[in-house]
Amino acid sequence: MSTSNTVTRKAADNNNNFKVVTVVATRGRGAEISEEISYTDTKVIGNGSFGVVYQAKLVHTNEHVAIKKVLQDKRFKNRELQIMRRLDHQNIVQLKYFFFSSGDKLKEEVYLNLVLEYIPETVYRVARHYTKQKQTIPLLYVKLYMYQLFRALAYIHSFGICHRDIKPQNLLLDPETSVLKLCDFGSAKQLIKGEPNVSYICSRYYRAPELIFGAIDYTCYIDVWSSGCVLAELLLGQPIFPGESGVDQLVEIIKVLGTPSREQIRQMNPNYQEFRFPQIKAHPWHKVFRNRTPPMAIDVVCRLLDYTPATRLTPLEACAHSFFDELRDPETRLPNGLLPPLFNFSQQELNITPSLNNRLIPAHMQSSTPTVSVGTASNNDKSSSQQQSTSVRLNNSPPTVGGSNSSQIQESAVALSSTTAVSVPSSNVHGSSTNIPATTLANNGGNPTSTNAILTSSTTDQTEAMNSSEDVPIEKEDHRA
Questions:
Q1: 3-state SS string over 119-169?
Q2: Is the same domain home to 198 and 316?
Q3: Are 277 and 416 in contact (CB under 8 A)?
Q4: Residue 35: its pLDDT value, please?
Q5: What confidence category does residue 196 fall into, taking pLDDT thresholds of 50, 70 and 90?
Q6: Is the dihedral angle over the CA atoms 304, 310, 311, 316 positive or is it negative?
Q7: φ/ψ (deg, to 5) at 222
Q8: Taking the model in full, what pTM does it have?
Q9: Residue 2 located in a structural domain
Q10: Is 69 assigned a ligand-binding role in the annotation?
C-alpha cells in the first residue's frame, strides 16, 4: 500500500480562484490500472466516526463525485473496498476510483479515498418530504424504489455478500430518472458458512430479530428483514418498529408480530430458548396499515417480516410478487416519463433462481433477454439459505453470546410482562390504537435519521470497536466479524 503523490494547484475560472487536486488513482473496476485524475469544487457533505465524505467534480469529465475518506489501518485491507471492486450493477453505487493519501497533520497516517458516483437524493429525504406534507409516497414510487432495492440485494446476495445496514438513508435516488442505488458498504461482509459474525450490526429500527437475539450465524436474510421495515415505513409514513433502545426494539417487534414461538426462537438463536415471554397475540396486519393500503402490499410486508429467517421471501421472490405487477405493465408511466430500466437482468441475476425468470421478465420483453434453462443450479435459493445455514455452529459448539444481548432480551421479557399499557405505534396515526402490556422503556439511543446522503460506515448506535471490523488482514484470510 502506498500513498499517491498529491499535487494541489490554483487555476482561474471566470475570474474566480478554485483549488484543483491531482492524484494518482486506481480504477474502481477491472485490472488495477493507475492513472492521474484531478478534481475540484470540493466541499464536505458528511461526517462521522468513519471519516469524511466530500462532494467534488472531476476535471476531465466535469462529473460530480462523492469522495469517502476513511482512516486506513496499515495492517489490513479495507473490506468495503474489496467488496465495492467486485460489484457491477445499475442499482448499486459505482466505485469509479480509489487512492490512498497521507494525513494532513500526521504524515504517518494513511487514508483510503473511495471516489464514488454522486447521487443527489435519498429515499429517506424523499419520504421525510412527504411526511412533512402529511402525505405518503405515491404507491407507484414505493413499488419502483423497493423493486430496485430487491434487485440490488438479489445481486449482492448471489455473491454471499450481506449489506448489514439497509435503511432509507442508504438508498440513493436520482430525481430525474428515479433510479435507486444502494450505497454504504462499510458494514457489508461476505458471509462464510461456519464463520461467526457480530450480532451488533445494522441500524436499530431495521435490525432483524435474530440480531437482537444475539445470533452470530445469521444469513443474508437480515437484509430482507430490513427491507421489509423500509417498505412498511414507506407505506406508513413512519418507522414500523421505532425502538427507543436496543432493549425496546424487540418490544416494538413483539407488539406487532406477537410473541415468537419456541421454534421461531430456536431458528433465530437456540441459545435464547430458556427465556420466557408473556404470550402476546400478533396485531392483525390490516390494522397496522391504513385502510386504503392494497392487500398485496401488506402481503409482501408480512412475508418479509417473519421471525423465521429462512421463511422470509428471497429478494427475487419479492421482485416476482404480484405487488410489482404494475411495473411489468408496458403501459405504466411515471408523471415525468418512462420507467427506468427494470428488466435488463444480467446472466448473474438470471442464474440465481431460474424458476422465477418467466415471472420476472414481462412477456413483451422476454425475446430480448438472455435466457437460462430452468434446470440451471441456483447460487442463492431457499435450499442454500442465502449461502448460509441458520443452524451452523463454529467448531460444533454453542455460539458465544455477549452478556449485553442476554441482559437486553431478559429486560425485554420483563418489559412485556409489565402492566403499563403501550399502544402499537404504527396504529396511532392510521387507525385505532390497540393496547398491550408493556412498559415505555427509557430512551437509550436516538432516531437514526442522519441526512448525510452518502455512506456512514458505522451504524447509528454501533460501538467504536465495530469500526475495526471493516478491514481484512492483508496476510490472512478474513476470520473477523
A1: CCEEHHHHHHHHHHCCCCCCHHHHHHHHHHHHHHHHHHHCCCEECCCCCHH
A2: yes
A3: yes
A4: 96
A5: very high
A6: positive
A7: -65, -30
A8: 0.80
A9: no
A10: yes
∠ CA 76-78-402, nearest 5°, is 80
Which residues touch 161 (CB under 8 Å, ≥6 apart)? 83, 86, 87, 188, 189, 190, 191, 220
What does the alpha-carbon distance between residue 318 and residue 27 come to, in Å, rounded to a whole number?
34
- The set of residues, in sequence order, having a beta carbon less than 8 Å from that of 254 and lying 6+ positions away, is 260, 277, 280, 412, 416
pLDDT in tens, 65-121: 999 999 998 888 899 999 999 999 999 999 999 999 987 777 778 999 999 999 999
Q: Is residue 481 part of a domain?
A: no
d(CA 72, CA 51): 10
Residues forming the active site: 165
Question: According to the model, what pLDDT value does residue 427 have?
Answer: 44
Residue type, 185: F
Cell numbers for 331, please give them: 403501459
Residue 80, domain extent: 7-117
Same domain, 96 and 186: no
Looking at the structure, do residues 60 and 165 belong to the same domain, yes or no? no
Q: Is residue 186 part of a domain?
A: yes
- Positions of E strands within 49-131: 51-58, 64-72, 76-78, 95-102, 110-117, 121-122
Q: Contact, 64 vs 55, CB < 8 A? A: yes
